[in-house]
Amino acid sequence: METHSTFQVGLLVVLLLVASAVAIAVKWVRVPYSIALVIVGLAMGLWHIIPAVEMTPELILLVFLPALLFEASWNLHLDELKRNWLSISVLATAGVLISTLIVGSIMHYWGGMAIGCAFVFGAMISATDPISVLALFRTLGIDKRLTMILEGESIFNDGTAAVFFKVILAITMTQQVFDPGSSLLRVVFEICGGVAIGAALGFAASTVTRLFDDHLLEITLTATLAYGSFLLAEQCHVSPVLSVVAAGIVMGNYGATEGMSTNTRFAVNSFWEYAAFLVNSLVFLLIGMQVKFNLLVEYGGMIGIAIVAILVARIPVAYLITQFCASKNLPIPLNWRHLLFWGALRGSLCMALALSLPINFPNREQFIITAFGVVLFTLIVQGLTIEPLVKLLKIHPEPVIVEDEALATISS
Fold first, then answer.
1. Domain tally, the chain
2. What average pLDDT is seen over the chain?
3. How many Å apart are CA 60 and CA 348, to the nearest integer?
4. Would the pLDDT of 178 be above 80?
5. Is residue 17 assigned to a domain?
6. Residue 34 falls within a domain, yes or no?
7. Angle of CA points 88, 372, 5, to nearest 5°
8. Gap between the Cα atoms of 292 and 269, Å rounded
9. For residues 199 and 207, what is the distance between their CA atoms, to the nearest angstrom?
10. For the segment 101-119, what is each residue's pLDDT rounded down to a tens digit?
């Protein structure tokens, strides 16, 4: 037992050293950090540099995901969220539904999947995770509103995609007759229930923060909130993803501003910034290490169909839905839509949902490998071509107004 524990700790140390080396290397090589980690992970898995590390759904959903979601939602500015609420909410709900239906239909008619299994795959692969794209946008100084729309969609559609996946999977596995009314009610209940629990816990934690000013206690409280909101929502059979998101938004916009001093807020921000860096590093490194090249070749045809499916499904989401959401005061230019289309990468949630499929699920191995292949394509092919696309579309950096930034810093 002691030897096994020592081995696991040693493996973690090696992974952290590799992640640190990659972080240093990308300072000189113009490759997004997360994508560089995937490529290094692929090389490590191909040449068996270290023993295989299994990526389990519990590791992603219970350990990694709450930290990633809370850090992202903690940093969402409520004013910007309100300003773009229509675009974000429609993309994260109707957009996911449209993507699920189109991907499912293509996988059924072209890929030969059973109809229920095809829609399970459609829901599983519809959650976007453009971490590397968002990091690049911030580096290039891309318009904050475009960044907010892409980030907001990815945060909220994690929750809706997971709910759709859970509902469709239950119907498929139990061979129930599909009832649109009851299915819709279940989806609405899980979404609203998750948001309600997260918001309530966020307000409760925000109230507690006003009773003391200790950065260590505040960090502990936010960590408890992140994981506690996830676990409580799961026990109540509502969306744990949206519960964490709601808790993070409330805590970041109310608790952090009303109950924390400047020094405490800085300490909490630093903690979550490091937590997100650490978790993202491990996630993307492990994604690369999971790939079995012989299985990718074996299921290459299905992976190709799935890639075509997600790209076709993204067209109405990026171009038609955004047209519906746009207004004269808040237009969504065509070149922004191109980036929303090509920047919809897939990541850890898709893999976690794939790995969580029951053992008796039909063609489970094919599903998992196909999902891995799609994730790899979006991260490496789409991820590496985003910066050239930004230049091709002539999307200029947002102008920086130094005086306003200085005033904002002083006022905060």
1. 1
2. 89
3. 7
4. no
5. no
6. yes
7. 105
8. 38
9. 12
10. 999 999 999 999 999 999 9
